[in-house]
Design brief:
Layout lengths: L6 E5 L4 H13 L3 E4 L5 H4 L5 E4 L15 E4 L18 E3 L6 H16 L2 H9 L15 E5 L3 H12 L3 E5 L11 E3 L4 H6 L3 E4 L13 H5 L6 E4 L8 H9 L5 E4 L19 E3 L10 H18 L14
Parallel strand pairs: 1-2, 1-3, 3-4, 4-5, 6-7, 6-9, 7-8, 9-10, 10-11, 11-12
Helix pairs in contact: 3-5
């Protein structure tokens, strides 16, 4: 079948090296790339059939009458909405799933860091203090996964392999591999109350913004640990600080924040029993190559009249 879209417009980066890499990789796939400045994108929408975007600008999309595929290079697409004027015929696709192994490993690493008391071990090393630690095992512990999408299911499989009891919260309650029990969103409190570890891997939408607020955090057990890997805005950071300071939670690890980079004066930096990683869970070597592979596959599916593999459900926002 002949290709319908040989020219790809890209609004991705201002770095010449990054642009050259995208042009080369898509050129090897037989596509020509036209790079568009973010500030000029709105003026050129009426001539674009396929658009590859990094951080999509907040613009009026109504002029994009020719647009058939809007591919984002990130798994989170909250920056796009409300996508004013975007026609219903436009298929929106994300790059979700390209960093599953790394996200899974990051979640496990953070849980193990707390279970094996590595934060205390690092502190003792700095103090040159030899004091053997009594650490635990993840086997037999319960992990609650807030979100059972592709990342959540990958974490579930790994946790089950370590002998953990796995429960999860998802919009549609149905049997999920490696998950012992699935809770509905309205049962979130029960799922949190059951956990030794809570791992947040749910997308940021209108329904999940502020989901883990002070009230929700208060339902967790005092010995529990919260791990947040999805997007800032889902966990109330002020309430989390208070819970840790008052020892109503044993610990927490944050990889994402309401403001990024995290300001130097943020109280999070000095909150006890809080481990901070700089939005690193999904940063992988070869990210661009992986994202472009997903894009090319989605583009070829569109040309065949099929739906993109990583199609975004507009009603859900992910």
């Amino acid at each position: 079948m002949p290709r319908r879209f040989n020219v790809i417009h890209a609004c991705v980066s201002t770095e010449e090296r990054a642009r050259a890499g995208i042009s080369r990789l898509l050129g090897e796939a037989g596509r020509q790339v036209v790079h568009v400045e973010s500030g000029l994108l709105g003026e050129q929408l009426d001539s674009i059939d396929v658009l590859l975007c990094g951080e999509p600008p907040r613009i009026d999309w109504s002029r994009a009458r020719r647009l058939r595929l809007l591919q984002l290079m990130s798994s989170g697409i909250e920056g796009l909405w409300p996508a004013t004027g975007l026609h219903a015929e436009v298929e929106v696709a994300s790059a979700r799933g390209i960093h599953l192994p790394e996200m899974r490993d990051h979640a496990l690493a953070l849980m193990l860091a707390f279970e094996r008391r590595l934060l205390l071990a690092v502190q003792q090393q700095r103090e040159r203090r030899w004091s053997p630690l009594a650490a635990g095992s993840l086997s037999g512990k319960t992990v609650t996964l807030v979100g059972l999408g592709e990342v959540g299911r990958a974490v579930a499989a790994a946790c089950a392999g370590l002998g953990m009891r796995v429960v999860g919260v998802r919009a549609e309650v149905r049997s999920t591999p490696h998950v012992d029990r699935v809770y509905a969103p309205q049962e979130l409190d029960d799922a949190l109350r059951a956990a030794d570890y809570v791992v947040v891997v749910v997308p940021l939408t209108d329904l999940t913004r502020g989901l883990l607020d002070a009230r929700a955090l208060s339902t967790m057990q005092p010995h529990a640990v919260l791990i947040h890997l999805s997007r800032g805005g889902i966990v109330d950071e002020t309430a989390l600080c208070a819970a840790l300071l008052q020892r109503r939670l044993a610990g927490a690890a944050l990889d994402v924040f309401e403001r990024e980079p995290l300001p130097p004066d943020s109280p999070l930096w000095t909150t006890p029993n809080l481990l901070i990683t700089p939005h690193a869970a999904g940063r992988v070597r070869g990210y661009v190559e992986r994202a472009l592979k997903v894009f090319v596959e989605n583009l070829e599916r569109i040309e065949r009249g099929d739906l993109p593999t990583t199609r975004v459900d507009r009603t859900r926002g992910y």
